[in-house]
Amino acid sequence: MASVFSPVMPLYIRSLGIGEKGWGIIAMFQAVGMVATEWLWGALSDRGRRMRYALFSLIIMSILYPLYTFHDLFRYLLVIQVLFGAFSIIIGPVSRAIVTDHSPNESIGFSMAIWSVTMTIGTMIGNIVGSYIADVFGFEKSFYLSSILSLLGVFATYATSRAMPETVENREFELSVFEGLKKGLGLLISNPSLRILLFIAVSSFAAYSVLMTFLPLYASDMIGMSIIEIGMLRSVMSLTSLIATVFFGKISDSINKRHLVAGGFLGATIFFIAYPFLKAKILVYLVSIGVSIFMSVYPLVVAMVADLTPRNLLGLSMGVFGSFEDTGFMIGPAIYGLVWTIYQPGYVFLTSAVFTIICFIMILRNLSHKPVTNARLED
Q1: What span, in angstroms and rounded, lies between the C-alpha atoms of 42 and 267?
Q2: Is the CB of residue 314 less than 8 Å from the CB of residue 101?
Q3: Helix/strand/coil (H, E, C) string of the chain?
Q4: Which one of 14, 228, 359, 370 has the minimum C-beta count within 10 Å?
């Protein structure tokens, strides 16, 4: 649903008279809501049917989308952004935990790849539809369509939850919520490999956020691409990511994930550096395809987190990991907005390259990957 308005959101904000620095701050406030709540949603989902939280998220989102179109509410735009982040993010840790719940230990990497593929398909379709709706009927209509799709998602999720068995036996424990949070966080953070993955999550999402928040503006201002062309660009990137994710996921369970992830971050760094030198639309497509291919190793990082997590802490672990991702998404746009304003637009991609090379160095030099999925919170 979010992908319907995602490619046009930066352009919509600028149509309101808000500059790039302001857009960076607005995007940052969405991440504030995500950082503050994702770990909590994940922890709560460990104590009941996870699908209930997905339903709750979709219902709230169907209400929030139209609020962006009410001009009288523009003064509360930052508040809406925080709420949007806080409730849209529920889907992330809940769906990742559900996938891991139903996956054998030896194929978590492939399962996470399939999870990523389904998300990518929605993004690919949403980018095309959202950009077309915005270009032909106006920006506001893409928000209304997102609301309608959220409501349809409520019915689809409810039907799925009725047919899917819930694996609760591995996550039942007698500790209170706050005791469980305290001991669970202590158990997770005590693992040095997991700590490294958390920092990689921050840096990689700071890098990835440039594609979501500033690539549309760069393509429009510096390359002269239309709204529909930008939507097509995002969809081509999603299609490429879909294919690459399946490939990386398929081979990840038989070879060292660390080597794949390190190579992916190094390749992404090279393509990020190429953006400032592009002048033709076809080159933007080619470089964006390259970035999409190499960044498609990221679901393997999530699989590593799942490997390192006790099964009765999956929701909490995915929530904490997601909060670190959100931290990267929070700091990235704010930094890029300043770089765009103070220096020049192309430098935002050089900044993102710094983040990916940090990921490459961290995972290449420091990561020791040993599954500990048999541990439990009560141990």
Answers
A1: 32
A2: yes
A3: CHHHHCCCHHHHHHHCCCCHHHHHHHHHHHHHHHHHHHHHHHHHHCCCCHHHHHHHHHHHHHHHHHHHHCHHHHHHHHHHHHHHHHHHCCHHHHHHHHHHHCCCHHHHHHHHHHHHHHHHHHHHHHHHHHHHHHHHHCHHHHHHHHHHHHHHHHHHHHHHHHHCCCCCHHHCCCCCHHHHHHHHHHHHHCCHHHHHHHHHHHHHHHHHHHHHHCHHHHHHHCCCCCHHHHHHHHHHHHHHHHHHHHHHHHHHCCCCHHHHHHHHHHHHHHHHHHHHHCCCHHHHHHHHHHHHHHHCCHHHHHHHHHHCCCHHHHHHHHHHHHHHHHHHHHHHHHHHHHHHHHCCCCHHHHHHHHHHHHHHHHHHHHCCCCCCCCCCCCC
A4: 370
Provide the pLDDT for residue 32. Answer: 87
Taking every pair of Cα atoms in the chain, the longest distance, rounded to a whole number of angstroms, is 61
Q: Within 13 Å, how many C-alpha atoms sit on residue 28's CB side?
A: 14
Contacts of 294 (CB under 8 A, 6+ apart): 263, 264, 265, 266, 267, 268, 271
Amino acid 372: pLDDT: 46
Q: How confident is the model at residue 175, as a pLDDT?
A: 47
Whether residue 349 contacts residue 272, with contact meaning beta carbons closer than 8 Å, is answered with yes
Tokens 């070879």, residue? 255
Tell me the average confidence (pLDDT) per consecutive run of 10 residues in the chain, 379 residues long.
Answer: 63 82 84 82 73 87 90 87 89 76 64 69 74 82 87 82 56 52 67 84 92 89 88 85 81 77 94 94 95 90 79 70 83 90 92 95 68 44
Note the pLDDT of residue 181.
Answer: 63
Domains, the chain: 2-165+174-366 (1.20.1250.20)
Q: Which amino acid is at 68?
A: Y
Structure tokens at 300: 């393997």
249 closest CA partner among 115, 100, 97, 99: 115
Six-digit token string for 373? 């999925």
The amino acid occupying position 39 is: W
Classify residue 320 by burial, with Cβ atoms within 10 Å: 0-12, 13-18, 19+.
Answer: buried
